């Protein structure tokens, strides 16, 4: 049965967090506030739970959710080959509106969808979200709305769309909090160097470059590089197969962009 808790009340908040922790353990979905809008969360290590999350939203496996983490040191447990530049950005802007796409630890037993071996990680700047993540560990989180509908800015908004597909709704008032912009997170492709902005959001390119001067803006090329000219294939031959690009998660609420892949240096950036 679906239950909603008012997190402005200390007793309800404690009860709601306990119920949400139990629901996550039972492979069910919960709705939680983030520093952008509300998200629908599930155990990142439960394929059953992630499948329920995607079904609740009406989304396919080609649009994998990002993973929210409770603390910065969870980074190395979930990702491998983390560039020093990406680590500096995480230290500077987490918790907050920065999502890092990294190579996922190959030993992890999880299935977030068609990620092509990558994972998108973010540490949200929201007390309720952080309290829940501390209890549950990493959560797959997508915006708490049906695909194509408006993002939920309250748990009540989310419940109107997701209804009984969610076990627990944690109501913590309007999101984003008054005075904060409603921008989604800035997404950085950190699977190769130089780092590259996939989607511009809450963290400006200028602020990023204060920490990592050579980070590329969306659509920019490394200094001295130009677009390679297309070469004609010899007659009768098929073009050589190209490596699959890494997947970018999909949604404005928690650091996602709809159904795009991480572009290579010569590709156009994805656009919402």
Nutshell version of this structure?
With 272 residues, the chain is an alpha/beta fold. Helix content is 24%, strand content 17%. It has seven helices and eleven strands.
Write the layout of secondary structure elements.
Blueprint: E1 3-6, H1 10-25, E2 30-33, E3 38-43, H2 47-57, E4 67-68, H3 75-78, E5 79-80, H4 84-93, E6 98-104, E7 118-122, H5 127-136, E8 139-143, H6 155-162, E9 168-171, E10 186-189, E11 196-199, H7 205-211
Parallel strand pairs: 1-9, 2-9, 4-7, 6-10
Antiparallel strand pairs: 2-3, 3-8, 4-8, 5-6, 6-7, 10-11
Helix pairs in contact: 1-5
Keywords:
alpha/beta
Written account of the structure:
This protein has 272 residues and is α/β, with parallel strands linked by helices. It has a single domain, classed as DHBP synthase (Alpha-Beta Complex), CATH 3.90.870.10. 24% of the residues lie in helices and 17% in strands. The protein is built from seven helices and eleven strands. The chain has helices spanning 10-25, 47-57, 75-78, 84-93, 127-136, 155-162, 205-211, and strands at residues 3-6, 30-33, 38-43, 67-68, 79-80, 98-104, 118-122, 139-143, 168-171, 186-189, 196-199. Strands 1, 2, 3, 4, 5, 6, 7, 8, 9, 10 and 11 form an eleven-stranded mixed sheet that branches. Strand 2 (30-33) and strand 3 form a beta hairpin. Helix 1 (10-25) packs across helix 5 (127-136). The radius of gyration is 19 Å and the shape is globular. The protein starts with a strand and ends in a 61-residue tail after the last helix. The model is unreliable at 229-246 and 255-272 (pLDDT under 50).
């Amino acid at each position: 049965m679906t239950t909603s808790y008012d997190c402005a009340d200390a007793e309800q908040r404690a009860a709601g967090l306990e119920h949400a922790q139990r629901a996550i353990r039972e492979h069910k979905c919960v709705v939680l506030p983030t520093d952008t809008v509300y998200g629908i969360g599930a155990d990142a290590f439960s394929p059953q739970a992630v499948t329920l999350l995607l079904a609740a939203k009406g989304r396919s496996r080609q649009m994998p959710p990002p993973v929210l983490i409770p603390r910065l040191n969870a980074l190395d447990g979930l990702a491998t080959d983390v560039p020093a530049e990406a680590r500096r950005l995480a230290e500077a802007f987490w918790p907050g509106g920065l999502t890092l796409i990294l190579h996922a630890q190959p030993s992890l037993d999880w299935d977030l969808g068609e990620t092509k071996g990558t994972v998108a990680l973010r540490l949200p700047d929201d007390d309720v979200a952080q309290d829940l993540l501390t209890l549950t560990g990493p959560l797959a989180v997508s915006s708490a709305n049906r695909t194509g509908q408006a993002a939920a800015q309250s748990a009540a908004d989310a419940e109107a769309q997701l209804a009984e597909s969610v076990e627990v709704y944690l109501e913590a008032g309007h999101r984003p909090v008054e005075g904060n912009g409603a921008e989604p997170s800035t997404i950085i492709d950190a699977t190769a160097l130089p780092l590259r902005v996939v989607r511009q959001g809450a963290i400006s390119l200028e602020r990023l470059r204060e920490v990592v001067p050579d980070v590329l803006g969306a659509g920019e090329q490394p200094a001295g590089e130009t677009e390679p000219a297309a070469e004609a294939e010899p007659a009768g031959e098929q073009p050589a197969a190209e490596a699959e690009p890494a997947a970018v998660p999909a949604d404005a609420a928690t650091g996602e962009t709809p159904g795009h892949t991480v572009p290579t240096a010569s590709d156009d950036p994805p656009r919402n």
